[in-house]
Write a structure and sequence with these properties.
The structure holds 2 protein chains of 2 kinds. Chain A is α+β, with helices and mostly antiparallel strands. Chain A has helices at 11-14, 21-36, 87-95, 122-140, and strands at residues 2-8, 40-45, 53-58, 61-66, 76-83, 106-109.
Chain lengths: 141, 421
């Protein structure tokens, strides 16, 4: 299972203020732990919204709006992609991150192939399950 | 804490994170994997009893280790038949627990590496190694492992018990092999990891969800190994191979669960993140220098496909060269057959057929439907339709499932239609 872990922006991150050396070191160690555990697929920091842009859709129209954007609570400053066996495992890993007071980290599961099986009716799915079981039965005999 | 079911799942998640290091550290202390695992399990039981009330401790790993060590002291003290040496061990343990010294990160890594080599020791059967690796290093429950391999739980339980007994009886030392031993032992470890991956990769639609998860488990183990043994090129080679193969998982199954061949897959469904990771791992292999080993070569072949945005852009000549190298390192009829297919793509069907024909007497391929299937395809392309038809019919007879059989019979029928005036 994969999870996207989103780090919210703050006034400092939006102002381009670098985190303290201690925090950078702690975050570096944390990332190292994630890599050593084979859990981190990706992890990136994002430039402040002052360097960003938005595209607004309206029928055929496209409007481009340049940053900065003001609602810092809803902005993202960085993300990770974790590969773990359960949401609880993703949560446990996030708990170990060196964030300070008041920070809220959001965890969202990534859609996998199995989630897109909507082309299949329940009958077809049951048929597939039976065929799969039968193949396994044949393999073992 | 949360509701009982949720608390349980949280503790299981913590276990998954901490189990391997816990068992590795305990093995170093008590010098016996079996005992170490029992002590670790005791600590888990204690956690399941206490944490739902008290909450997960801030440092769960240290809590588990401390609890396991106390249990070890109890056990040693209670067993009156033990000699003085073990009594001394108990005193040392007590002293350690009292000080709670922090374990050096290097030590943790070393212990983990020792545990990986121990779980994959050649004295164990392959199934024993696989089961023990998933249990000790993956932190999977016996039930999960049993479901992953479609084996009854008691059978899997016995398999693990036997493996641990074998290790104890053989007095396998808790160490990372060195010198001339290392290559063979490492090869055993990589084989186990790739076996786990392939079991997951073979999972079909409708299978228990733990089965495809085996791919993720193998990838995780491979990535951990890559950090613990960064100077071993074949480790990176295997990781690269698994990342790139895994990148195709969304494209390789059709809407009715039927397998889709590589060249027919919708490449927009290939996971570019995993491809990128695979290529990065391959780069690490190359940077270490030396000639490419079998896993790295297979990864390079997979990378050739991964880099092509469409089948027409595939660098088939490079693939042929890679198969040439692979055939020299680890010759096998299956590799020869793949080489024939690649040669046909690179140099035309006649070139491919020449290589495939060399395999006609090969006993290992006698019941392998892909050989006549490949020959049929090449003969078809050369306009030798009667021969192609009989090869497709022969392949259909050997096919392992209904869908493949239907496909091959269709191809045989197509030969008749083409040759009728």
């Amino acid at each position: 299972m994969r999870f996207m872990v989103m780090v919210p922006a703050s006034e400092e991150s939006e102002a381009g203020v670098l985190p303290s050396t201690e925090l950078i070191a702690a975050m570096g160690k944390y990332n190292e732990e994630l890599v050593k555990a084979g859990v981190m697929l990706a992890g990136e920091g994002l430039h402040p919204t002052s360097k960003g842009a938005r595209v607004r859709f309206s029928g055929h129209e496209r409007t481009v709006i340049d940053g900065p954007f003001t609602e810092s609570k809803e902005l993202i400053a960085g993300f990770w992609l974790f590969q773990v066996r359960s949401k609880e495992e993703a949560i446990e890993w996030v708990k170990r991150a060196p964030f300070g007071d008041g920070v809220e980290i959001e965890i969202r599961q990534v859609f996998e192939m199995e989630d897109f099986g909507d082309n299949m009716t329940p009958e077809l799915r049951e048929q597939e399950r039976r065929i799969g079981a039968q193949i396994q039965q044949n393999k073992r005999s | 804490m949360e509701a009982p079911g949720a608390a349980h799942r949280t503790i299981e998640a913590v276990w998954r994170i901490e189990a391997a290091r816990l068992i590795a550290g305990l093995t170093r202390i008590v010098r016996d994997v079996s005992l170490a695992e029992d002590l670790a399990q005791d600590a888990l039981v204690a956690a399941l009893e206490q944490w739902p009330e008290s909450g997960v401790p801030d440092n769960p790993g240290a809590w588990l280790m401390g609890t396991a060590k106390h249990r070890a002291i109890d056990l040693i003290r209670r067993n009156v038949r033990l000699q003085e040496k073990q009594e001394q061990l108990a005193r040392e343990l007590e002293a350690q627990t009292a000080d709670q010294p922090a374990v050096e990160p290097d030590e943790v890594g070393d212990d983990l590496l020792r545990l990986i080599f121990t779980a994959c020791h050649p004295v164990l059967s392959t199934e024993g190694r696989v089961a023990l690796t998933l249990r000790l290093l993956g932190g999977l429950t016996t039930e999960e492992i049993a479901r992953s391999f479609l084996v009854p739980v008691p059978t899997m339980y016995q398999r693990i018990v036997r493996a641990k007994k074998t290790l104890s009886a053989a007095r396998v030392p808790f160490e990372v092999p060195a010198g001339p031993d290392l290559a063979g032992r490492l090869s055993s470890v990589l084989e186990v990891v790739y076996l786990i991956f392939n079991e997951g990769y073979a999972a079909t639609a409708g299978d228990d969800w733990v089965r495809p998860e085996l791919c993720g488990e193998a990838l995780r183990l491979g990535r951990i190994l890559a950090e613990l043994a960064p100077n071993e090129p074949e480790v990176h080679g295997l990781v690269a191979l698994m990342e790139i193969q895994a990148s195709r998982s969304r494209a390789r199954i059709g809407p009715r669960g039927e397998p889709i061949l590589l060249l027919e897959q919708d490449r927009s469904r290939w996971d570019q993140l995993l491809i990128h990771r695979g290529l990065v791992a391959l780069e690490r292999t190359r940077q270490l220098g030396g000639s490419l080993g079998p896993y790295a070569l297979q990864a390079e072949i997979a990378a050739c496909h991964a880099r092509a945005r469409a089948p027409e852009e595939t660098d088939w000549e490079r693939i042929v060269a890679l198969y040439d190298a692979l055939a020299q390192l680890s010759p096998s009829p299956v590799i020869e057959l793949n080489r024939a297919v690649a040669a046909a793509m690179a140099f035309g069907p006649a070139a491919g057929l020449e290589l495939a024909d060399r395999l006609s007497g090969e006993p290992l391929l006698e019941r392998y439907h892909l050989l006549p299937s490949v020959r049929g395809d090449l003969l078809f392309k050369l306009g030798r339709l009667d021969e192609a038809r009989s090869e497709f019919l022969r392949a259909a007879g050997l096919a392992q499932n209904a869908r493949e059989r239907v496909l091959l019979l269709k191809r045989a029928a197509a030969c008749e239609q083409s040759s009728s005036p």
